[in-house]
């Protein structure tokens, strides 16, 4: 577009303002409508395996009936690309590329093995019984109603919480660098505990334990005969161990 000011009809100052306005308007991003993604894979209910890698946004995984892994995702723009692939009859991998946040809700057979990674976002897992690994650099991790022989949950700057059973010979590791670490276990839980908090303190209420080591920063103790291993660690946050009524 060419602007002239012949016969002083448009002053140079006004012309420059019009040009700047056009540049600003043309440079504005047009909002993109929210988008949804949905996909389902048939798997063996006894031997299914799910891996999720999400850059930004949340991941929620819930145990569901049936022999399918069902993935639903919500994104606010088209700048993220979701790839969901069945690597084998029992293994599904979901990965996000791009810079936009994506929120996932995934239904899995209860015995599914889970490997979940968020670079910036929260992770929630409910009622699964398979082995579980959850990691996030910036966000909380909540594990609810878990009955698994192996659990590993690590957050750099978020809270980590676990409620569920501890099984004989099971291993349960909950770690956060700067967040709160919390575990709620049955009253009859039989486990060996190692807990360390360098600055936030320890609260270990409700369990009758024998202590091999006890300071204001770390504890090495046994509840029952110590058949399972529970490891709670945080650098800057606090540790809380609760006993279910």
Helix count, DSSP H or I runs of 4 or more residues: 1
User: Beta-sheet strand percentage?
Assistant: over 45%
The percent of residues in helical segments reads under 10%
Task: Output the structural class.
Answer: mainly beta
Largest β-sheet summary: 11 strands, mixed
Count the E strands. Answer: 21
Strand order of the largest sheet: 5-6-2-8-10-12-14-20-16-19-18
Large-scale geometry: globular
Order of helices and strands: HEEEEEEEEEEEEEEEEEEEEE
Description:
The chain is mainly β. A hairpin with a 3-residue loop joins β18 and β19. It contains 1 helix and 21 strands. The relative contact order is 0.12. It starts with 11 loop residues before the first helix and ends with a strand. It is globular, with a radius of gyration of 25 Å. It folds into 2 domains: 30 residues; 209 residues. Strands 5-6-2-8-10-12-14-20-16-19-18 form an 11-stranded mixed beta sheet, with no helix packed on it.
């Amino acid at each position: 577009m060419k602007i002239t000011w012949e016969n002083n009809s448009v002053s140079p100052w006004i012309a420059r303002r019009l040009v700047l306005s056009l540049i600003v308007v043309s440079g504005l991003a047009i909002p993109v409508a929210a988008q949804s993604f949905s996909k389902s894979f048939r798997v063996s209910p006894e031997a299914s395996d799910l891996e999720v890698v999400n850059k930004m946004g949340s991941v929620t995984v819930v145990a569901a009936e049936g022999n399918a892994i069902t993935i639903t995702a919500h994104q606010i723009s088209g700048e993220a690309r979701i790839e969901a692939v069945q690597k084998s009859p029992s293994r599904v991998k979901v990965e996000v590329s791009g810079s936009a946040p994506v929120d996932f809700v995934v239904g899995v057979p209860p015995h599914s093995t889970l490997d979940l990674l968020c670079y910036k976002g929260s992770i929630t897992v409910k009622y699964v019984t398979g082995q579980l690994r959850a990691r996030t650099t910036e966000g909380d991790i909540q594990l609810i109603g878990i009955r698994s022989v192996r659990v590993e949950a690590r957050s750099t700057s978020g809270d980590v919480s676990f409620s569920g059973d501890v099984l004989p010979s099971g291993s349960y590791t909950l770690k956060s660098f700067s967040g709160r670490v919390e575990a709620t276990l049955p009253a009859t839980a039989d486990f060996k505990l190692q807990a360390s908090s360098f600055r936030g303190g320890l609260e270990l209420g409700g369990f009758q334990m024998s202590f091999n080591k006890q300071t204001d920063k770390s504890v090495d103790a046994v509840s029952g005969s110590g058949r399972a291993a529970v490891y709670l660690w945080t650098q800057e946050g606090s540790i809380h161990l609760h006993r279910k009524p």
